[in-house]
Amino acid sequence: MPSRTRPRTPALCLATTAAAAALLAGCATGPQANPDDPLEPMNRAVFTVNDKLDQYVAKPVAQGYKAVTPEPVRTAVSHFFSNLADVGNFANNLLQGKGVAAAESFMRVAVNSVLGLGGLIDIATPAGLEKRSQDFGLTLGTWGVPSGPYLVLPLFGPSSFRDGVGLYVNFQFDPITYAEPAVRNSLFGANVVDVRANLLGATDLLALAALDKYSFVRDAYLQRRRYLLGADTALPDYGDEDEDENEGNEPAAPSAPAAAPVPTQPAAPR
């Protein structure tokens, strides 16, 4: 018998798409919705994919790297990429009008590159040259550009509309970007593995501590970015029964949200 199934017309497809969009939008509304995260349904989906990629690819590779590589070698690798990151730190501190921080970043690159065997040894920190980490997302924030909605990027993890633009510029500040393709890709891959290996303990703690990993990472990321821009932030509210306990909290210490990284985020070089 011939099928009686009616063909899907363009109008029917459009209605189906509109209904799906309305359903997704409804998931992001209500008393529990975060106004900073209007794209939560999509962000959660991307977060889940990133988390699975980390669980089955990035984390095992990082664990293997840590198991077979001596600690002095791992430290030298971290110092090497940290030294390259100071090039971007210099540029962003300069763009933000932070002359002292820019000078320190420039001196760190010069000292570590020359006396530290290309950055494999960190000579600058013991010499009193403090690391002044910055990125172009923070530079845009310093210029008054609003962050826009929270955004989870495939592979790169937590971000925002502003920080997503900043991420592209950060790559332009990275000297690795201008290396030959084979060298560039190898170094980017090594940087990802190095970052992930350094975050093994933090992400293990996150998995044990967070009831909702997505919300924890989002709130920690947003609080961290506001803190770095000098905003007066309080600890995120995770629905404690006694809301008065959260009143009068001091701004979080700079390192507090760092315990909640997304493992698949190479993001801005350190």
Polypeptide structure, described:
The chain has nine helices and two strands; from the N terminus they run H-H-H-H-H-E-E-H-H-H-H. The chain is mainly α and 270 residues long. It has one domain. A two-stranded antiparallel sheet has the order 1-2. Helix 5 (136-142) packs across helix 6 (161-173). The chain is globular, with a radius of gyration of 22 Å. Residues 1-29 and 238-270 have low confidence and may be disordered. This is VacJ family lipoprotein. Residues 1-33 form the signal peptide. Residues 249-262 have a biased composition (Low complexity).
How does the SSE layout of this entry go?
Elements: H1 10-27, H2 40-68, H3 71-95, H4 99-114, H5 136-142, E1 150-153, E2 157-160, H6 161-173, H7 181-198, H8 200-209, H9 213-228
Antiparallel strand pairs: 1-2
Helix pairs in contact: 2-7, 3-4, 5-6
Family: Belongs to the MlaA family.
Organism: Cupriavidus oxalaticus
Keywords: Lipoprotein, Signal
